[in-house]
Design brief:
heterodimer; A: 484 residues; Ubiquitin-like (UB roll); Enolase-like, domain 1; five-stranded antiparallel β-sheet; 16 helices; 32% helix; B: Aldehyde Oxidoreductase, domain 4; eight-stranded mixed β-sheet; five-stranded mixed β-sheet; EC 1.17.1.4 (chain B)
């Protein structure tokens, strides 16, 4: 059995400060709500217990002076939320919404529920969307609504009435979450915070090199929920405010702390490189992006993680820390072999450093998966390409996920491009070289031959969009960019 | 006076409860003190002889109270709905990877799951040859039921005499129901060895029978209740039985309440789904594309046992005609036994599989002749006066296909868009568009005549409020809302005065499954019958007082009137009670005129047909196989709708669900390659099995345009409405065939795209490669 958490976990639920003692560190918020809370809060449902269906979506609020009312409110999957990650925060479930609530009223009016099982999860996602837009005085377009709903599955309605309801809810009288009251409750909790300094965390890591570092637990929770793995008493990296920061140097270099959320990290990356917006939209789902971290995605090192290929294409560095000492590696050198990385005992990922791209760099990142939303990549290609004045390829970084045991640059393909005129002949040579670079696997997502074929075709798409003569716009090469 | 509630768009009766999280599903019910939790130990191999189970190791796990296996079942170890080849817990052999071998009962669900996870370590199994591929099973003539044959005329001679002949194969995958609420049962011991079982099931009576047989009890000792399901889609018609039986077994044995809720992954590994089909066909046709003869072999992947595979195949054979007159057919159906989960009911029940085959064939016929596919479809439509008898001998009496398709084609500018798309494709090097319009004709009724019956109870209380109970189950489709509308209409009451309570085998006995789209047709009529009896008694009572004919008494707007005399319904009820008038009644309905010869596959299996058509436009990326649905126009026939909002919800939901089946929802098993995962269903959770999301529908306002075809049902159905659950599942054939059209465009329409279903990106790229090779 997992070890018992040594310190009470304190969070706000139903307006009360809860202090839980003796709870296993991997007890999930979902199980706590449904089994332990009194009265049981059964409005939050379990559909999959792996963060893919959204039936357990709840809101988590935390102190944030930059957010409206000093409270940031985000939706997460309760099935992936270990209780210790809620320390110092507030949980808002469907039972907490003021009545009548415009989200609920809109769903009834638009016939947005059939079996109703997924509905509370949709209600919470839509409440988060409404809160975000109400604060900004904006309303989302239908594609933005669908993006927001990417983590909520409905098997009955076909979604149209739910999207309609997400528009309709803005026309109904508001019933906002009382942020002032929440802030006061959160402030009261903050008096006894579990937050720690970077130095303290580094010391703990040094003292417990075997301990599992956990951030949002969006992967680790599956080991527990599905495989019953005992992960002991983890080190909770999101408790280090210094590591949640994202900062920019004067020269534009971006520093993404290891505990910054995926959503914040991708927002920062896409603000700098708009070509990354599509990968951001399709990276997991909003609730997973709110809980998970880019540092976790990188440290986890899965060959089908979408963070690494993009960051390697951007020539990112990774800063590793051991006690007081840090060292910096090129991210591509961090990965040694399947699920093996360069971390030494007692060391941890402190931050990612993304330099500005050289002038004239064209960046592309394309994800291929069975479904657009919330799916694992079959192949992800990230490419950074720079042409000289003669239309020759001055620099090329081509990075692939899903094609090898680790995220890997296509070295021979890059070599076939470098210094060449960017024309059909060069493209074909690069496509031939690509088959030398990779020997992908066949698995449940796709066959090896599809992975190779689609990768070669993504090279062609790259050429079509970036060739010096008659480049095609994305609307002519990508179905998601096409507008009728 | 308010007008009737029939035909109005009322919200789902539980909508307010759904959105506030206050609609209880079984796992939300207050737990009785002492409740224990179950988990199933699953077979780690696809096929083997079960030599021994070291259950003491499992019993030693923390929190475990009991571990039960087949030997602990006092009655019959079977939960098969027709053929009795479905052990509740494995006995002698294990036949698929994921088959339950034992049941752990523990203090908490987590403890039960952890103990059950030892299954692979405690089972001694001698491996046997496993077959995962239905075509391999077909070669071995390994079937769950005898082959079936539906024949009319001499198909071989018709094909030989036809001007053109076409041969081909088509591979169609299965589909997971993915009800959001997984399987669950909660069993509570009752007095005198009885049991109350809360079961998430479409078929409470079947659950009652299975539990009674397994425990050696009489049916009257077992009470099964279901207030609502978080989705069913056929997956809880027969296959809720294993869970109900296991929970009941443990509760009976331990005399404690026991809840069994498998984890989603286990639900995928234990239960079956829509049958995948493999088709081989030869057809003969004329210059206009009219089919003159068809020989078709259908091999379904039945999985490890019969379950409902035989009636699913029957419906597939009876829907190969879809909308078309087929003068000579020779259709053979084989239900292949494989070592995979036993496949079962799923919305459409074989109908979609059979009908898609003929649509693929007509698509190819049109391409070979260089004709417009819609023109070829129209040329083959059933007639209204002649050419109107189905291969199974039923006359198509109410054919509205031609006007329905004409209306949709005009609304969707079919011909103009075909030209626009050709022009787009001519200048677009990477992205290609495709368009397809496909019709639906779907037979309504259970193919087994005696299932077409239903019962209901209507109680009018002395305060004038009404409680309805019927044999159907609510899985989100809005059945209870429609039945309440029917009863409110009969008694002239506002809908709010009528409540429908949980389905309960102690109230209405011997019910049929809520399946085959028949829920409202059957239970609505039964409830109407009950309400009418009460109304007639009240009318006779008040007519005597008022000195009028009973027929002159009207019930509307909460008032009872005759000429100038009027009385509030509530008041009348109070007076009638005092006069000792029976204020409650049962009701019964049996669909008239059905007969079916199961051996010859001939008769009149269907009360009527439901029709529809859809026009879909897609865009396909020829480099990656990615695609998007740009626009879909749907016109669907629900007769005179009882509730247009609910009906549109069913049509749209089915459209998107069927689109998922044919595109992203791919099932993959690890081949029998000697690896540790051999025989494992690899796509056993939503992380790997991808149903549509909100981003997979056309989002522009009006781009998913679903409308109802206003046409009263000529058959005497409930208020002349038509069933709506399953027929629209066939509408997204248009999406699949539009993708096929776009792929075909990439090859200049010279070659038939060998596109399999589901049309994943990989399947599309494979088909593109074939058409580009030429």
């Amino acid at each position: 059995m997992p070890e018992i958490s040594p310190r009470p976990i304190r969070f706000v639920h139903r307006g009360h400060a809860i202090a839980l003692e003796g709870v296993p560190p991997t007890r999930t918020l979902l199980d706590w709500l449904r089994e332990d809370a009194r009265p049981r809060c059964t409005g939050t449902k379990e559909g999959c217990n792996e963060g893919d269906c959204g039936a357990c979506t709840v809101l988590v609020a935390e102190r944030d002076d930059t957010a409206p009312g000093g409270v940031a409110i985000r939706h997460v999957n309760a099935c992936l939320s270990f209780l210790p990650t809620l320390d110092g925060r507030a949980v808002i479930t469907v039972e907490d919404l003021p009545q009548p609530h415009p989200v609920q009223q809109a769903l009834v009016e638009c016939h947005g529920s059939q079996c109703g099982f997924c509905t509370p999860g949709f209600v919470m996602t839509m409440t988060a969307l409404r809160e975000a837009h109400a604060a900004a005085g904006t309303r989302p377009e239908r594609p933005a609504i669908a993006d927001a709903l990417a983590g909520n599955l409905c098997r009955c309605t076909g979604y149209r009435p739910i999207v309609d309801a997400a528009e309709r809810m803005f026309e109904l009288p508001d019933a906002p979450i009382d942020r002032a009251a929440l802030r006061a409750q959160l402030d009261a909790l903050a008096a006894d915070t579990s937050e720690m300094t970077l130095e303290d965390f580094a010391a703990q890591r040094l003292a417990r090199p075997e301990a599992r570092i956990v951030a949002g637990a969006t992967d680790v929770a599956l080991w527990v929920n599905k495989q019953f793995r005992d992960i002991g008493e983890p080190l909770w990296i999101t408790r280090v405010p210094a590591l949640r920061r994202i900062a920019t140097d004067a020269d534009g270099t971006l520093h993404i702390g290891a505990a910054a959320s995926l959503e914040d990290a991708w927002a920062a990356l896409a603000a700098r490189w708009p070509a990354l917006t599509e990968v951001w939209r399709r990276f997991a789902s909003p609730p997973v992006r709110h809980a998970g971290t880019l540092g976790g995605n990188i440290a986890n090192g899965s060959p089908i993680g979408d963070g690494a290929p993009v960051l390697i294409a951007l020539d990112a560095r990774i800063v590793l820390r051991r006690g007081p000492d840090t060292r910096t590696l090129a991210l591509e050198d961090f990965y040694l072999d399947y699920m093996k990385n360069a971390l030494a005992p007692g060391e941890f990922v402190e931050r990612l450093v993304v330099p500005p791209s050289p002038e004239g760099t064209q960046l592309r990142a394309w994800k291929i998966s069975k479904r657009f939303d919330s799916d694992i990549s079959t192949v992800l290609m990230a490419a950074a390409l720079r042409l000289d004045a003669d239309g020759r390829i001055a620099a090329a970084r081509l990075v692939f996920g899903g094609m090898a045991a680790i995220t890997k640059r296509a070295a021979q393909t890059e070599a076939a491009l470098r210094g060449r005129r960017w024309d059909e002949a060069t493209l074909q040579a690069a496509q031939v070289a690509l088959a030398q670079d990779f020997l992908p696997l066949s698995d449940l997502r796709a066959s090896a031959s599809y992975r190779l074929a689609v990768s070669a075709n993504l090279l062609r798409r790259l050429w079509l969009e970036t060739r010096p003569d008659d480049p095609l716009p994305a609307s002519a090469t990508q179905v998601r960019e096409f507008r009728a | 006076m308010s007008t009737t509630v029939i035909g109005t768009s009322r919200p789902h009766e539980s909508a307010q409860l759904h959105v506030t999280g206050r609609a209880p599903y079984i796992d939300d019910l207050p737990e009785v003190a002492g409740t224990l939790h179950g988990a199933l130990g699953l077979s780690p191999v696809a096929h083997g002889r079960l030599v021994a189970l070291d259950l003491d190791r499992v019993r030693a796990m923390p929190g475990v109270v009991a571990v039960l296996s087949a030997a602990d079942i006092p009655g019959v170890n079977d939960c098969g709905p027709i053929v009795h080849d479905d052990p509740i817990l494995a006995e002698g052999t294990v036949n698929w990877r994921g088959q339950p071998m034992f049941l752990v009962v523990a203090r908490t669900r987590g403890e039960a799951r952890r103990a059950a996870a030892l299954a692979a370590q405690v089972a001694t199994i001698e491996p046997l040859q496993a077959v995962l591929d239905p075509l391999e099973a077909h070669r071995l003539q390994q079937y769950v039921v005898p082959p079936m044959h539906l024949q009319r005329g001499d198909a071989a001679a018709a094909i030989a005499a036809a001007p053109h002949r076409l041969e081909g194969r088509f591979s169609l995958g299965g589909q997971e129901q993915f009800y959001l609420e997984g399987q669950i049962a909660y069993a509570l011991p009752q007095e005198n060895d009885g049991l109350l079982v809360h079961s998430s099931t479409q078929h409470p009576t079947e659950m009652q029978h299975v539990v009674a047989h397994a425990l050696g009890l009489a049916a009257h000792q077992v009470q099964v209740q279901c207030r609502r399901m978080g989705g069913g889609f056929g997956g809880k018609e027969s296959q809720s039985a294993l869970f109900a039986a296991c929970a009941a077994l443990a509760a009976h044995r331990l005399q404690c309440p026991v809840k069994l809720r498998p984890d989603r992954d286990d639900d995928f590994l234990i239960t079956g789904r829509r049958h995948g089909f493999e088709f081989r066909y030869t057809v003969g046709h004329d210059e206009a594309g009219r089919l003159l003869g068809a020989e078709v072999e259908m091999v379904s992947n039945a999985g490890a046992s019969a379950d409902l595979s035989a009636p699913v195949m029957t419906r597939a054979l009876c829907h190969f005609d879809n909308a078309y007159w087929l003068p000579a057919v020779d259709l053979r159906g084989y239900c292949a036994r494989t070592n995979t989960q036993s496949n079962t009911a799923f919305r459409g029940f074989g109908g979609p599989q059979g009908a898609l085959a003929v649509e693929v064939i007509l698509d190819e016929v049109a391409r070979r002749l260089g004709l417009d596919a819609l023109a070829v479809r129209r040329a083959n439509f059933y007639g209204t006066e002649d050419r109107n008898i189905t291969p199974y001998g039923q006359t198509v009496e109410d054919n509205i296909l031609a006007p329905l398709v004409d209306e949709l084609a005009a609304r969707g500018r079919h011909d103009a868009r075909r030209a626009e798309i050709a022009a787009f494709n001519a200048t677009s090097p990477v992205l290609k568009k495709g368009l397809a319009l496909t019709p639906v004709k779907f037979g309504i009724s259970f193919n087994v005549a005696h299932f077409n019956q239903a019962g209901a109870l209507v109680h009018v209380y002395t305060d004038g409020s009404v409680l309805v109970n019927h044999g159907g189950t609510e899985m989100g489709q809005g059945l209870n809302t429609k039945v309440a509308q029917v009863v409110a209409h009969e008694l002239g009451l506002p809908l709010e005065r009528v409540r429908v309570s949980a389905t309960d085998t102690h109230k209405v006995a011997n019910t049929s499954a809520t399946a085959a789209s028949t829920g409202t047709d059957l239970n609505g009529k039964a409830a109407q019958d009950a309400a009418r009896q009460i109304r007639d008694r009240l009318a006779a009572f008040v007519a005597a007082r008022w000195q009028v004919a009973p027929e002159a008494v009207q019930f509307a707007g909460g008032q009872v009137t005759a000429g100038t005399q009027a009385l509030a319904f509530t008041e009348l009820v109070a007076q009638a009670y005092a006069a000792r008038i029976q204020l409650w009644s049962d009701g019964f309905y049996a669909t008239p005129g059905l007969h079916w010869d199961r051996e010859r596959l001939q008769g009149k299996p269907f009360f009527y047909f439901a029709y529809g058509a859809a026009l879909s436009e897609v865009i396909v990326d020829t480099l990656t196989g990615e695609w998007r649905l740009l626009r879909a126009d749907v016109l669907h026939d629900v007769g005179a709708s009882l509730n247009p909002a609910l009906d549109i919800g069913q049509v749209e939901g089915a459209f998107v669900q069927g689109m998922g089946w044919l595109t992203t929802e791919e099932l993959r098993w690890q081949p029998m390659d000697g690896s540790r995962a051999a025989g494992l269903l690899l796509t056993h959770a939503p992380s790997t099995y991808k149903i549509p999301t909100a981003n997979d529908i056309p989002l522009e306002p009006g781009a998913l345009d679903v409308r109802l075809f206003g046409h009263r049902n000529p058959a005497d159905s409930i208020h002349r409405s038509k069933a709506v659950g399953e027929p629209p599942l066939l509408l997204p054939f248009s999406v699949f065939l539009a993708i096929r059209d776009a792929v075909s465009a990439a090859g200049g329409h010279r070659v038939d795209p060998p596109l399999r279903a589901p049309a994943t990106g990989e399947a599309i790229l494979d088909a593109l490669a074939a058409v580009q090779r030429g």
